[in-house]
Structures are given as C-alpha cells and as structure tokens.
Amino acid sequence: MRLSILCLVLLTSNCLAAERPPNIVLILADDLGWSDLGCYAADLHQTPHLDRFATESLRFTDAYAMPVCSPTRAALLTGKHAARVHMTIWSEGSLSGPKDRPLLQADSLHSLPRTETTLAKHLQQAGYLTALVGKWHLGDADHYPETHGFDVNIGGTHWGAPHTFWWPYRGSGRFGSEFRYVPHLEFGQPGEYLTDRLTDEALRVIEQAGDQPFFLYLAHHAPHTPIEAKPADISYFQSQLNSGMHHQNAVYAAMLTSLDESVGRVLEHLEIHDLDKDTIVVFLSDNGGFVGIDGKSGQTVPVTNNAPLRSGKGSCYEGGIRVPLMIRWPGVTPVGSVCHEPVVVMDLFPTLLAAAGIAPTADSVMDGVDLRPLIADPAAQLDREALFFHYPHYYATTTPVCAVRSGDWKLLEYFEDQHIELYNLKDDLSESTEISLRHPEVVSRLRKQLHTWRDTVSAALPTSNPDYKTTVESK
Fold this sequence. Notes:
By secondary structure, this protein is of the alpha/beta class. The chain is 29% helix and 17% strand. The protein contains 13 helices and 17 strands. The chain has helices at 2-19, 48-55, 69-78, 82-85, 119-125, 194-209, 231-240, 250-272, 318-321, 348-355, 372-376, 440-456, 468-474; strands spanning 23-29, 58-64, 103-104, 129-134, 152-154, 171-173, 176-180, 214-219, 279-285, 322-328, 337-339, 343-344, 387-391, 401-406, 409-414, 420-424, 463-464. The strands form four sheets. Strands 1, 2, 4, 5, 8, 9, 10, 11 and 12 form a nine-stranded mixed sheet that branches. A four-stranded antiparallel sheet has the order 13-14-15-16, with helices on one face. The chain has a two-stranded antiparallel sheet with strand order 3-17. The N and C termini lie far apart (94 Å).
C-alpha cells in the first residue's frame, strides 16, 4: 500500500514537472550588426560566450528585423509587422520628420497602443513572472512596460539611448539640453558600467522568480551609441587592429566584449541554479549595425562595418535588416545546427507562445509564423511566400523605401521617384549588381506582391512635400 502511494506521489510529481512551461530568456542587442559576432565571421571582435552559445543553439543565417529599433520591438512583442502596428520609425522620430526633403515622412505612432496584447501579457496571464530589464523605447509613461504585461520594469523608458554607459547613467548635453537617466539603477558606484549593471538586475530577476516560470526580456542598450567601453578592453583591441580588417573601431569591439560577457553570465547563472535545461534562450539584434560615426564620443571611424552586407541601420539593404539570431531550446533545437531559411522577428511571437503552451485566440492577427518546423528540421522550408520591409522615412543611409524578399530575389522600391532595384541574394549577397532590367517579369511579380501587402496591412505612406521647392530655392 505504502509503495503504491509512493509511486502515485512520484508519478504525480513527474507529471506536474512535465507540465511546467519553460522559462524564456530573450536577449536583445541594440544596433548589433549581422557580422559583428565571431560565430558570424567577425574579424576584430571577440565573442567567445556567444560563439559557444551558437554551438548549443540553432543559428539562423537569414534572420531579419525592421530597419530601426522601435519598429522591431513592437513587432517582436506583438507578432505583427511594424507597418501593421503603424510604428515604422523610432518613437521620438515619429513626432517630427524633416521638412526640407521631397517627401513628408509617413505617420507613425509614438507609443505602442495598449489595445495590443503583447507576448508579455500572454505569458503574464499564463502565470509567468514577466520582467523587462533595459531598453523599452515604445512610448510615453502611459505606455510603459507595466501597461503591456510586465510585472517588473528596470530601466525601461521612452528614450532610445542612455546619456552615458557609466554610472549614474544620467546627464544632459549629448541630446541637446534634454536630461536623460536610467531609472531603478540608483545604488551604484563610480566606474560601474551599464551593460554589467543590467546583467546584475537580470540575474536578480531569475533568483526572485523562485518556482514561478519567468519571462526575462533583457534588452541591452549595447552596442548602441554612445560608443563607450572599459579602458582595458579598448587598449586590448587597439593592439589587435590591422588595416585588413573590416572592423576598425576598437571601442565598439570593447563594448561587444561586455555584451558577450553579459550573455555568458546569464547562461552560467541558469546552469548554476539548475535552470538551463528548463529555459529557452533567444539572442538577436533589433536592426543592422550603425555605420555612421559617433562623433560625440570622439570617434573618427565608423561604429561598425556590416560587410559583406551592404549599408546599415535604417536601410532596407541587407546590412540594415539582416541580424544575428540564435535559439537554444533544450531538448528541442538541434545542437550546433544552422538554418538558412529566411525568418523574421515576428516569428518569435507564435513560436514562444507555442513553447509556453499558449494558443492565441481565433481572431488574433499575426504576421509571424511558428518556427517549430525549422527547429525540428533546420533544412525545412516555411509555408511563406515572402518577407516585407517598410521604412517610409529618411535616415542617413536611405530615403523612404519598402522592400520584399521572395526566395533569393530581393526588390526595393523607393518612394521619392518610384525607382526599383532588384538583386539576387544567392548570387549577390552584397547587393552590388542591380539587375531589374534583366528580369522584368520578376520585377512585375514582386512589385505587385509588395503593393498588395502594403494594402493588406494598411501601411502608412509618405506624402509629397508641398513646400519642398520653396525650401530648396530659399537656400
């Protein structure tokens, strides 16, 4: 009798353990380029922890985000394309666009509407402890993480970058007279570095969760500007530089060392607390690497170089939208495998909901697709015709543009003059040879597909600037 009861108790305990949903750790880097990590063929940069993580994960070679930060964050949390959510530029950029260009930028929301049911909200309702540590950048205080399903918000504000990476992380001057700060990081000390401190807070969230499943969204500010890093790391990378490298910014390389160490600390913490086998870990970036110069930090060389990809942040060329993505789902993802199927940031929404055993309501609108078929077989293909990108705004790397990738074909349409560019990514990853005149039938098909998609999601478009001619003549 006692043996039967003991067996029943053990069986019940095992069933309960099996039913417990996995923890989820989502680590988002800010402005990290596709080729910035060792496991993605970086030269100057050294990222041993992320490289090791790649050997434990499913690594995607053709993963995409939006061209800039806030749209990616909105798409990630809603599973909807940024154009459908109507957030196509960073939050502050939505308030006012340039008035001296041929087009007026498209309308874009400043804040993620509270009518959206985010990934965090779904998980919170399913019993998860939900925490945002780091960058939010999805609107004003009335739309902060707490209003979108996060139990904990450490550091999240409407700003897209800190005044400085050094404690107390506040001040004015970099962004004009505006005074910026990072909340809830008050009790630090001189010399404390933001990437390290955010990691400390993330580890504390894991410890506080106890037996409760948790969703940790660790949204680092690194390696976004200001380009600041620890002096010893900077000196090391200055000694490693040579003229033949694509990457030439020692300070940026040093920032990546701290980011890499952060990921290593999180993974080690999960292992120490015997949580690594029960935790899905996802690592990705919010857009392509920034190829400008951070002059306010005293830089004289570009922040990064996305070669072999063309251009960078803001652009719909590959350097602006292709990002690193790795997923470690213990017992599910094939260890050390590589997937070449095109995927996009919205795909994480249905994938992670499915992992948590959550079924979206029948009337849910999602532009992402569940990646589990690729997780089961990295050589598989998704039932999806194309990926779309929409940036109806100006940036240093682009004029207003939209794009579509279908198979190996990539078409860009620019709004100022409606000119078309066509590339074959299999033959020309660097998008160096424009071939639209050679393939009019492909242009016609993709352009129609792109326009149909824009209508389907009600994408906002730029408009003609009636004052442009007057503005130009007055100069």
